[in-house]
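Progress report, Aim 2. The chain analyzed during this reporting quarter is listed below.
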Amino acid sequence: MDNNKYIPLRSIESSPALDNLDRICDMEEGRLSGKVFWDEQIYAQEMEKIFARCWLFVAHESQLPKFGDYLTTSMGEDEVLVVRQKDASLKVFLNACPHRGNKVCFAEAGNARGFICNYHGWSFGADGGRLLGMHESKCYEESNFDKSKHGLREARVASYKGLVFATFAADAPSLEEYLGPMTWYLDVMLDMDEGGSEFLGGCIRSTIECNWKIAAENFVGDILHGGWTHDSAAKAMLGGPVANVGEFPESYSVNWNGHGYEFATDVVGNAATLGEREINKYLHVLRPKVAERLGEFRSKLIGAISSFTVFPNFSFLPGQNTVRIWQPRGPHKIELFTWVIVNKNAPQDIKDKWRRGAMMTFSPTGVFEMDDGENWEYCTKTSRGVVTRYQDLYVGLGMDSRIEDSELPGNVFKGQLNECNARAFYQRWKDLLQAPTWADVPDRNGKMR
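Predicted structure tokens for the chain:
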């Protein structure tokens, strides 16, 4: 295998499986220990066995329209470059020179024909990441150096309706298989309009001193906190009482392989919290066209009270239209990247209102994000206590609430006030930490309670 191709899994994974995972994570009983949010050894294995081999979101295609356009991000703690190629495809490279490992690009985004390492002058082409030359090239030639074997290391890349994912695992399933039937629900955000979606320019970046799993779990299916944590903020934005999701006649929690989506069918419940009536009007006017495109049921989800996490760390909020990555920076800290996603064909004034709404609600000074950040930080920090980290945490809400005869795709459960998605998330987390290869990861679909 060429040096710049994706890495065989066996060369990534080196740590033996943890021997006490069954004791600290038992989703059959709905029981979890706070140790999973604090332990350094657990975090090290997450980097090897989850972030180095799962499909991870790295970009939206709209961010890289032209050849040479690039952005820098990370996959776990591995820094990477996402680069548009001459043939219009996208490639993902490690942002690390294969000579001494220095970064080859320090900018967040831009356009370039190539990348040059500051240390010894190794230069790499934007198209393919090939090593093109180096400072004092003659001394390399005298050492029988083969440039073709020392390009930027490359990941596998695949896209789904504008969302770009990458993995460094040779034996990972295809992205289509990885996402499974959850694409049916992703289409509510990505394919409600014939023009598709786009990211608005700019990225909101912040840091929160919490474990990445707490944030991902919150979006995988924790609407329970909304009516309590966000009560006053939601009333301020709505100008009236907050909806009681427990009384909704039709709401669901759906999961598949650790991905989870909880949702109501109220059309604009999330969108309304932005305080922009024109957004609500836009969605109501658009809804009949969405019904023609995706069916009546999904047309009721376009801005509804809902949240979604694609395992492990990619989440979004329909209606509020914020897309975010919870980038792990050690077991006790995350870097949060947030974008606003809109229909490409939406009027510019509607796009602008969505951008303002996101800043008002889910930004470092947003009325909802400040509530969440404080909770997540203390959920993490209490786990530093020796006794506290072994306390059983309850994850059993909605046990045995599966809807066996549902026509909806995935594992479908009754209601949003349900921790079934959290149980599926942590079960997938544990399965990956225990599995030596992708072939060893068990299929839990249809079996989780």
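The chain is about 30% helix and 25% strand. The longest strand covers residues 334-343. These observations will guide the mutagenesis work planned for the next reporting period.
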